[in-house]
Amino acid sequence: MTSRSPRQVAITIAQYLIALLALGWVLQQIDVIDAVSRLLTLDFWTIALILVVSLVGGFAQFDTWTAVLHPIKSVGLRSVASISLVVNFVNQLLPSRLSGRLAAPFVIRSQTGMKYADAAAVSGVHTGIYAVLYGVVSTAGLVAIASSRALSVGWLTLLVVSTGLYLLAGSLVLFAGSNLRILDPVVDWLGNLLATLPRIGPKLAAWVRGLTDFTEASTLAFKKLAANRRVWGRYAVSWSVVLMFAPAVRVWLMLQAFGVQFEPLVLLPLYLVTGYSVTLLPISPGGVGVTEATATAVFVALGVPSAVIVPVVFVDRIFGIYLPAAIGWIPAARLDLSSLAPD
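^ that's the sequence the OP posted. Answer follows.
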């Protein structure tokens, strides 16, 4: 295991400090005791509905992985759930939500026995579609928020940057995954260079040149998935349930319970997607603290009392992100590392 440089350690510490400061800022906006008291007043049926909607959202999250896995290999629900939960778990450990996707090919390989080339394609298409859909929906929410002229220029700028990064990241992932063969000349050049080394050179060159087979296989699988309309359709429906329907229903149920009316209700899912978009920025691990602060600022600007929206956002994040991530530790600890050997 390689040691981390002092600079890397300092950046990590700074990111955790930012997360703590952001959480502190959010908690300063409310009376914590009052917020807890509000949550304790939620009736049985509201809590039950929140749990049901969260379960629906969880299974929809699993289905986003099924959408991209099924055309390559039929995978059972247990394996799909493990892949989804482990990737979510890793996402909360790393600064950017997309950075956790780097581990996805290895998780897919462990759970399905799929070849690395196919696993990389599945992971790449899942990431690309996710980011593109998020960017498009967040843009719609951003337009609605900007039209209200309620949010400050600073917060709007942050949301514009995060939304733009989603669109850029998704487009780049889809483009790169479909054009991995452009790396072949670089691989051939590196192979020829290594071949000049004494003794170990020929073996290293043969291994590096073998990467062209990987890029070819991965590109073919990637193109097959990325061009499949059924993959996009099924993924988009499940994504909408996870990122729009489930959070909006949870938030609406709690706002109703606290006697707060939100209008127009049709824009609530868009506002939530936009408010949570900062998870892509490498500001804090998993966007913790910063995401809650941004969502709070958005809804306070839209007229929701801070004493209400802060606990509502925290509960929504717990059921939508943090609880599934915590559960993801279980399958992560059970990963069969012996299955990660090269093809």
